[in-house]
Amino acid sequence: MELLIQKAEEFVHNELGKDSSGHDWFHIDRVRKLANYIRQKEDAGDAFIIEMAALLHDITDEKLNDTREIGEQKLHDFLLSIPLTEIQRKHIEEIIQTISFKGGNESELQSIEARIVRDADRLDAIGAIGIARTFAYGGKAGSPVYNPEAGVRVRMSVEEYRNGKSSSIHHFYEKLLLLKDRMHTKTAKELAEQRHQFMGDFLSQFYKEWNGQYEVSDS
């Protein structure tokens, strides 16, 4: 199993090592570590399946490929290149196909392994790291930091979520602030509380600075 984990690490390094949108190797490694931690705390799930799915979860992402189909084929080819059972391969692919947010159009999860990997990925999307990744991706995608004239998008299709115009600050309301209440495991729910509060504090400070609410002591 360790050799297969190592092969997955090498594959992901080659595919995402130079990413600058917040989906780089360090993101993958954080999600892997979070998933392993959640599994241990919850004492549930197949450790090998969870770690492999966490390592490979962004390979199919359409943001990182010309099309979703290209990414799915890339993942499929890699999984066929290593000695897995068909049940293992299909389980890993099923997890990766179902964990994405998709503008709130989420897939229903079929296993504890999928719930753990989704929770780990979403934890890395919030808190201080989540804030940093939001602005990294916004800059890469050409989105403004904030446009107060734009409205928060709700009830979006997947296409609208992926390709519609928004700002990095709006992304907090369209996704990040929603994630705390969408965690599945007890461990992830507890970890999400502090990260969610940190984002709220950040937004409060952001609006003070944006709106020129200066605070200087008279003494």
UniProtKB/TrEMBL annotation:
Superkingdom of the source species: Bacteria
SMART domains: HDc
HD/PDEase domain mapped to chain residues: 20-135
Protein name, UniProt field: HD domain-containing protein
Organism: Heyndrickxia acidicola
Origin organism lineage: Bacteria, Bacillati, Bacillota, Bacilli, Bacillales
